[in-house]
Structure formats: structure tokens, C-alpha cells
């Protein structure tokens, strides 16, 4: 915590001088003990929010009160965000189950209503930032053992806030911890209660889960406990589906393998788009098979169905449009490579592959390579070699032309001038024609492009 002395010191003195208690709590304490303290600091206090506001007024660089209804005052100091929440002891509305915010009088009340014991540790911050570790619920033991347990019974806790069931899987994914058997059993019994939670809260946790270092374990926990069946049903539906090569028996296990492979191929930061695409890349398989009972699944059909299913699910989860589009596009494109027998693609096919991927190309490379891992080592090696070949083709073509930005050889103005037409839908059609031509044949001379366009125009009218 030394790294935060410049905040803890003055803040501790400020609260002590006013006669209030101040504790660092929750994720901040957990992460500090794990040696991965984030830059944001969460505190709890017995001071009421208006007192906290008054205390911070002369000290923080900036403060705001969006969380004031929940007793939280937020501020920024030295570029770091701090949140100070008045002790809470929530009651839950028996009908709506929404929390009724009530201020508690003791730290213990506040800690016991938290989600897991490892998130219910505190450090009392005295004057000049002197710290004293407070852990009435055994959070440190849980942390050392790597287990998730609830402060009260898991049933009571999850009944109060079912989101905690999803948070359990999220912490599995972030920390690599395991749920205590009683926690897991309660989730299995209560999984459908997750339906009470708003989509926004669910999605925020899902994102954190899939970005976790142990994302595969987190997804597996979601599926095994039955939570996934409520919020991401297509993923557990892949269990025991046999894929068309009969190579990996279980498309679900294969999806987890590909997710792990994709994570291993990341360079640096966790890649949300790549991870979702890896998890969902074969989402269309079960459906494709149901719709084509005769067997023989065409790649194309699978691509279209898969991308559609991805869109439907991610839209339901209210993912941002760009994120949804990118993930769906990767799922759509990931199989095309399997039509690439070594060197068989025309330049046109290579161009279309690069153009359709656009900015996603580096991720597409990773996704396809992650997918080229079958149980059969020799087949996997041969697939990788074939993909090496495709990447070489792309690089070679990129030396001859600007592959990253394939555009028609004539722009809108040139089209209007040549055809003698005003701006309008016909210009768009001509532009599209030229773009297709450019994809098929590569860069044309201006003369050839004009000749082709005039021939197209004459055939049209
Ligand atoms: P991170 O900020 O890294 O995502 P965190 O543990 O800090 O992880 P937050 O959502 O920021 O998670 O919550 C801060 C703290 O508030 C938690 O550590 C926990 O003590 C408590 N908390 C958060 N959500 C809940 C919940 N649904 N039920 C009970 N306690 C919660
Ligand atoms: Mg936090």
C-alpha cells in the first residue's frame, strides 16, 4: 500500500481529525494482498455522505456524487480515483428484491453484506496513513487457500443479490480460485435467479470474466453451474455436439481449447474481441446440424448461421454495436481458410479475405491459428503450415498493391464525369462495380478502368 501513501496519509489524517473511521476495503485490500493493487481505491466510513463530501471538498482535485443514492462519494486525487462509501447494511425489498440502502453503524455490518469473504477484508487507515488489518470473516484464509466463500450462507447471499453467482465465476476467471462446494451447490440450485438481474450488470461481469487470466475456468464454471444456460445458452449447447469431421467429439471442449489457444497468442493486453470470437466461433455448429439432419454441413451455411447467432446473443446482452460487428465478422470469416488448399486461392480470393477482415486481420490470423489445433498433432501441424502459406501469399500480394485499402480505381467525381451523370444511386452502383473489379483483378490503369466502366454502363442501358 506504500505506493498510495500520498493519498492514504492525508486522507487518514483528515478523517481522524474529524473523528470518523476510515477503512480501505473490498477489491482494494484483496488486490493489495495479491500484489496487484489497482490504481483505484475503495474506502468505507462511518461518516455520512454529506460529511464525506465536506471533508473532501478542500482536498480532492475533483469530486462527484453519481453514487450518492448508495452512499458513495467519488473523487480524484493525484490522478487516481477513490470511492468512499458510508457503512451499509442493506435490506432487500421482498417483492422487487432491489436493495434498500440503509446505513450501518459498524464495519462488521458492512463487511458481512459483501459478496465473498476475500472481498470483505479491511485496513483501518489512521492518521498519517497508518494501517491496521481487519479481517473478521476469514478473508485472508480464503485468499491463501484460493477459495471463494460467502460471509453468510450462500443461499441467503445469492437470494439477496443473484449477481453474486456470476461474480463468483468472474473471480474464478480473474484469480484462478475455486468455489467452495457449498457455494457451487447453492449456485447450481439457484442459477435461474440470475434472470432477476439487469442485462447491463450481467454483461459488465461477463466482460471482466472473459478478460480474466483464467477465462477458460470461469466459462467452465458458468456452464457447469447452470448460469450460462440462462445468459449464454449457446455455449453449453455445444456440449457433446459432434462436429462434421468427427475429430473433436465435443464442440464445447473444443471451444474452450480454442479460447485458451487464442489467449496464448495474444501479445500483451487481453483482447476482448478475440476472446469472444474464440469462445463463440463454432456456435453455429449445433444449429447447423439440427437443420441439416442428412449430415453434410456446408462451411458457408455454418458461417452464416454462426455469425447470425453471435449477433442475436450479443445484441441481447447489449454489447456495443462495433464490438458485436467485429466478433460476428470474425466468426463469419474463420472457416473461409479451410477452402484454401495450399496455393489454390486466386489473387482475388486473397484480396477478398484481407478486405473482408479489414482491421480485424491480425485477430483473424490468431483465431484461425487457435482453431487449427485438433487432437491430431499431424493434422494440426499441416493446417498451421497451410496457414503460413496463406500469410505468405498475403504478404507477397501486399508488396505489389495496397491490400490494406482496396478502393475502386476511379472515384465518384471521375465516375460522374465519365458517364455524364449527376450524383445519385447510379454513381454508387458504378462505384460498387469498380470495387468488385478491383478486388477481382487488382489495380487497373486509369485507361482500363474507364474502358471497363463504359462497357458496364453500355450493357446496363
Ligand atoms: P474490480 O473492481 O477489480 O472489478 P472489485 O472486487 O473491486 O473488483 P467492485 O464491483 O468494484 O469489485 O466492488 C467493490 C467491492 O464491493 C467488492 O470487493 C465487494 O466487497 C463489494 N461488492 C461489489 N459488488 C457486490 C455485490 N453484488 N454484492 C456484495 N458486495 C459487492
Ligand atoms: Mg473495484
TrEMBL record:
Residue ranges of every copy of the HD domain listed in the record: 251-397
Regions annotated as coiled coil: 380-407
UniProt xrefs under Gene3D superfamilies: Beta Polymerase, domain 2, cca-adding enzyme, domain 2
Cofactor: Mg(2+)
Protein name: Poly(A) polymerase
MF term (GO), any: poly(A) RNA polymerase activity
Keywords assigned by UniProt, alphabetized: Coiled coil, Magnesium, Metal-binding, Nucleotide-binding, Nucleotidyltransferase, Transferase, tRNA processing
Stored InterPro entries: Bact_CCA-adding_enz_type3_sf, HD/PDEase_dom, HD_domain, HDIG_dom, NT_sf, PolA_pol_head_dom, PolyA_RNA-bd, tRNA_adenylyltransferase
PANTHER family membership: CCA TRNA NUCLEOTIDYLTRANSFERASE 1, MITOCHONDRIAL
Amino acid at each position: 500500500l506504500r505506493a498510495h501513501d500520498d493519498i492514504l496519509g492525508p486522507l487518514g489524517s483528515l478523517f481522524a481529525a474529524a473523528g470518523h473511521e476510515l477503512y480501505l476495503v473490498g477489491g482494494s485490500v484483496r488486490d493489495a494482498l495479491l500484489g496487484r493493487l489497482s490504481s483505484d481505491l475503495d474506502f468505507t466510513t462511518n461518516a455520512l455522505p454529506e460529511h464525506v463530501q465536506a471533508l473532501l471538498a478542500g482536498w480532492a482535485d475533483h469530486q462527484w456524487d453519481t453514487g450518492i443514492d448508495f452512499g458513495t462519494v467519488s473523487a480524484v486525487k493525484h490522478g487516481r480515483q477513490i470511492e468512499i462509501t458510508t457503512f451499509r447494511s442493506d435490506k432487500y425489498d421482498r417483492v422487487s428484491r432491489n436493495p434498500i440502502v440503509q446505513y450501518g453503524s459498524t464495519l462488521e455490518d458492512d463487511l458481512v453484506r459483501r459478496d465473498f469473504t476475500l472481498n470483505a477484508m479491511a485496513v483501518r487507515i489512521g492518521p498519517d496513513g497508518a494501517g491496521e488489518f481487519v479481517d473478521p470473516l476469514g478473508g485472508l484464509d480464503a485468499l491463501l487457500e484460493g477459495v471463494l466463500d460467502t460471509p453468510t450462507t450462500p443461499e441467503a447471499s445469492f437470494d439477496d443479490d443473484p449477481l453474486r453467482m456470476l461474480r463468483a465465476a468472474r473471480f474464478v476467471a480473474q484469480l484462478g480460485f475455486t468455489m467452495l462446494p457449498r457455494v457451487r451447490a447453492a449456485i447450481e440450485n439457484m442459477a435461474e435467479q440470475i434472470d432477476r438481474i439487469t442485462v447491463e450488470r450481467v454483461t459488465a461481469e461477463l466482460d471482466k470474466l472473459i478478460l480474466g487470466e483464467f477465462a477458460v475456468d470461469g466459462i467452465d464454471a458458468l456452464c457447469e453451474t447452470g448460469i450460462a444456460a440462462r445468459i449464454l445458452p449457446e455455449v453449453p449447447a455445444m456440449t457433446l455436439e459432434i462436429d462434421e469431421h468427427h475429430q473433436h467429439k465435443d464442440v464445447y471442449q473444443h471451444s474452450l481449447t480454442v479460447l485458451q489457444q487464442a489467449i496464448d497468442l495474444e501479445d500483451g493486453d487481453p483482447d476482448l474481441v478475440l476472446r469472444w470470437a474464440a469462445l463463440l466461433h463454432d456456435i453455429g455448429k449445433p444449429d447447423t446440424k439440427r437443420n441439416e439432419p442428412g449430415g453434410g454441413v456446408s462451411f458457408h451455411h455454418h458461417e452464416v448461421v454462426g455469425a447470425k447467432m453471435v449477433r442475436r446473443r450479443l445484441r441481447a446482452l447489449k454489447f456495443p454495436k462495433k464490438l458485436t460487428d467485429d466478433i460476428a465478422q470474425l466468426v463469419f470469416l474463420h472457416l473461409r481458410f479451410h477452402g484454401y488448399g495450399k496455393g489454390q486461392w486466386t489473387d482475388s480470393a486473397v484480396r477478398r479475405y484481407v478486405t473482408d477482415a479489414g482491421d480485424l486481420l491480425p485477430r483473424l490470423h490468431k483465431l484461425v491459428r487457435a482453431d487449427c489445433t485438433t487432437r491430431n498433432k499431424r493434422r494440426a501441424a499441416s493446417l498451421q503450415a497451410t496457414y503460413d502459406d496463406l500469410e505468405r501469399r498475403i504478404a507477397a500480394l501486399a508488396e505489389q498493391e495496397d491490400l490494406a485499402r482496396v478502393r475502386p480505381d476511379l472515384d465518384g467525381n471521375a465516375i460522374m464525369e465519365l458517364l455524364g451523370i449527376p450524383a445519385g444511386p447510379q454513381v454508387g452502383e458504378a462505384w460498387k462495380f469498380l470495387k468488385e473489379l478491383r478486388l477481382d483483378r487488382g489495380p487497373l490503369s486509369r485507361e482500363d478502368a474507364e474502358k471497363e466502366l463504359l462497357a458496364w454502363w453500355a450493357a446496363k442501358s
